[in-house]
Amino acid sequence: xxxxxxxxxxxxxxxxxxxxxxxxxxxxxxxxxxxxxxxxxxxxxxxxxxxxxxxxxxxxxxxxxxxxxxxxxxxxxxxxxxxxxxxxxxxxxxxxxxxxxxxxxxxxxxxxxxxxxxxxxxxxxxxxxxxxxxxxxxxxxxxxxxxxxxxxxxxxxxxxxxxxxxxxxxxxxxxxxxxxxxxxxxxxxxxxxxxxxxxxxxxxxxxxxxxxxxxxxxxxxxxxxxxxxxxxxxxxxxxxxxxxxxxxxxxxxxxxxxxxxxxxxxxxxxxxxxxxxxxxxxxxxxxxxxxxxxxxxxxxxxxxxxxxxxxxxxxxxxxxxxxxxxxxxxxxxxxxxxxxxxxxxxxxxxxxxxxxxxxxxxxxxxxxxxxxxxxxxxxxxxxxxxxxxxxxxxxxxxxxxxxxxxxxxxxxxxxxxxxxxxxxxxxxxxxxxxxxxxxxxxxxxxxxxxxxxxxxxxxxxxxxxxxxxxxxxxxxxxxxxxxxxxxxxxxxxxxxxxxxxxxxxxxxxxxxxxxxx
Length: 517
Known about the structure:
The protein is of the alpha/beta class. It has two domains: 3-255 and 471-491, 3-Layer(aba) Sandwich (Aldehyde Dehydrogenase, Chain A, domain 1), CATH 3.40.605; 259-451, Aldehyde Dehydrogenase, Chain A, domain 2 (3-Layer(aba) Sandwich). Helices cover 36% and strands 21% of the residues. It has 15 helices and 22 strands. Strand 19, helix 14 and strand 20 form a beta-alpha-beta unit. The N and C termini lie far apart (92 Å).
C-alpha cells in the first residue's frame, strides 16, 4: 500500500494539496506505487519559515549540551530503525540496499560526532590592550534556516544540514526532493521523536522547485529566513546564490561535479579499475561525486581500458534489493535527461562497458541482468573512450551511468585536464609516486582529493564541499560546518570604572633604541 505524506508545519500536517498531488512509483518496479504526496506551495513554505522563526528563540534558550544530547538520541533511534529506513530509501529511489544501509549509517555517524558539539561550541577569551578590560567571542546561531536537498541521498545529506543546524540553536524549514518524500517524511519523524523536538523547531515542506523558489523569495523578503543551505544542480545553485546575495546572505551551496580520476603509469591498475567502477557507476552514476572522466597516461591507456571494460561487463546490475552494483535511475526525469547525455556520444568516440547503450530492455539486453529489465528504468553502463577537452561529455556533469576516458602525456597536462571543466568538487589520483600525490594535491581545484581511492565517499568528521561550479567554498560535515550555522559575536567588558578608548589610551613601554652591544 502506498504511503500518503504531506508537509508538516509547527507539528501539524498541512491539510489539502495546494501544490497538487504526486504519485511516486518504485523506479525499479514502476507498476508499484510507493508514495502519494500532497504538495504544498509557496505559501506553505513561507508559513513553515514563519513557524521556524517563531520557535527559534525558545530553542536557542535550551542549553547547548541538552541540544547535543537530543542529537545523540536521534542517532540511537535512527540506529534502531536502520533496516526499515534503508528499505524505504531503496523502494523509493532504487538505490541498492547495501548503499542505502550505508547512507543510514552516515546519519548515525553524523549524530555521534555532533553529540559532543553541544559541549564544544567554544568561544575564546582574548587579552585586551587595556587594563581591567576583558574580551570574549561567542558562536551564535544564524536563526531560522532553510534547507533544500536533492533526492539521490535522501536521508544522509539532509542530516549534514539538520544535525549541525539544530545543535547550534537554529530552527529549520526543510524542503526535500519531492520524488523522495517518503524517505524525507520517515527521517523527519525520527528526528522529531528521537530528539523530542518542540513544534516549529523542524518543519517539513513538500513542494516542487518553482513553488519552493517563490516561497523562499517571499520568506527572505519578509525576514523569516536567516540562512539557506542548498544541495542540487549548479544551474539552480546559481539562482539560489543570486537570491540570497540580494538579501546580503551567503548560502551554503553544494552543487554538481565533473570529477576526474588520474591514472598514472605507476598505478595499480586493478585498484584503479575497481575505484572507477564504483565511483562511475555506483548509484547509477547519480551522485555529485560520481566519476566524470578518467585521465589515464597514454602508456597504460590500452591496458586500463581493457580491464575497465571487462569489469563493467561483469558487474551485476538490476533489482536494487539484490547484490548489484546499481539499480534503476532515480526518477523518470533523470532517465529522460540521461538519454540527452547519450546523444553527446559522437563519431570520434568508442563505447565500451556493456552489450548495448541506453535503456536495458528485452530488445536491448544486458548479459547477466538481475531481475526483470522491463519492470523499471534500468540503463546500460557506458564507457566512452576518446573524449576530448572540448566535448560536452568532458565539460558538463552527466548524471547517469556514463564515464569518459581521455589520455595525457606528461603530468602537468593531467593536472590541467583535471581542472579544465571548471567544477571543483572531488578528484582522485592513482599512483605510487609521492611527488605526484603532492603535486596533484597542490594543483587540483577540487575541494576533496582522494589518493588510490574513489571520487565518491565521505566521512562524518571530514569537510565536504567544492569550488568553482561545484559550490561557493562552503563546507559541510565535521567542525567546519559550524561556520555555516553560526556567526561570531565579540563582546568587550570594561570593569575599570572609567572610559578607556581603544588605540588612544593604550599604555606603552619606552624602549631604548640607541642601545648597542
